[in-house]
């Protein structure tokens, strides 16, 4: 099974090769800024599950913190990839860049204590103040 997606202008295209998609809603201040919204929803993938169909070499990387790089399409500004957050090389792809409306398993809300008052995370999913167990940068 695979799921395709891409940026707003279409210059960057990718394919996720896995049976189903797991997603987390991140309310951190950086996700708020970069998306201009209350939070961003990320699909978590391993590097070998992500295949680039177009535009990979053109992406611009921005080091948004010591823990993360965010990569953007230089033509339309869509954030298309987040990496560097975990030692195991896990990647995140913003769920809003997926084509259509594929089924997502929502794992929960992270950095929930940073949520803006006008978009508080609902209580029907797990809420974590920071990284959930098993994710995030590991202590050296
Ligand atoms: Zn683009
Ligand atoms: Zn975030």
How is this structure best described in words?
The chain is mainly beta. The chain has one domain: Metal Binding Protein, Guanine Nucleotide Exchange Factor, Chain A. The chain is about 5% helix and about 40% strand. The strands form three sheets. Strands 9-4-3-10 form a four-stranded mixed β-sheet. Strands 1-2-5 form a three-stranded antiparallel β-sheet, with no helix packed on it. The protein has a three-stranded antiparallel β-sheet with strand order 6-7-8, with helices on one face. The protein starts with a strand and ends in a 30-residue tail after the last strand. The structure holds zinc ion (2 copies). One zinc ion binds near residues 7, 11 and 76.
Q: What is the global morphology? A: globular
Alpha-carbon Rg, integer: 14 Å
Percent of sequence in beta strands: 35-45%
State the name of the first-level CATH class: Mainly Beta
The domain tally reads 1
What oligomeric state best describes the polypeptide chains here?
Answer: single chain
Total number of β-strand segments?
A: 10
State the strand order across the main sheet: 9-4-3-10
End-to-end separation:
36 Å
- pLDDT average, as an integer? 91
CATH architecture: Beta Complex
Question: What's the SSE blueprint?
Answer:
Layout lengths: L1 E5 L6 E5 L3 E6 L2 H7 L4 E6 L4 E5 L5 E6 L2 E5 L6 E5 L7 E4 L9 E7 L30
Summarize the model shown.
This protein has one helix and ten strands, in the order βββαβββββββ. With 140 residues, it is mainly beta.
């Amino acid at each position: 099974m695979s799921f395709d997606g891409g940026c707003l202008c279409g210059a960057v295209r990718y394919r996720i090769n896995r049976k189903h998609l797991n997603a987390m809603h991140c309310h951190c201040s950086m996700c708020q800024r970069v998306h201009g919204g209350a939070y961003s929803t990320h699909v978590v993938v391993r590097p070998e599950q992500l295949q680039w169909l177009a535009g990979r070499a053109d992406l611009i990387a921005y080091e948004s913190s010591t823990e993360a790089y965010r990569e953007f399409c230089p033509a339309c500004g869509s954030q298309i990839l987040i990496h560097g957050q975990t030692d195991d090389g896990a990647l995140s792809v913003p769920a809003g860049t997926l084509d259509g409306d594929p089924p997502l398993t929502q794992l929960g809300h992270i950095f929930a204590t940073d949520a803006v008052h006008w978009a508080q995370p609902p209580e029907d999913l797990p809420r974590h103040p920071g990284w959930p167990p098993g994710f995030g940068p590991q202590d050296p």
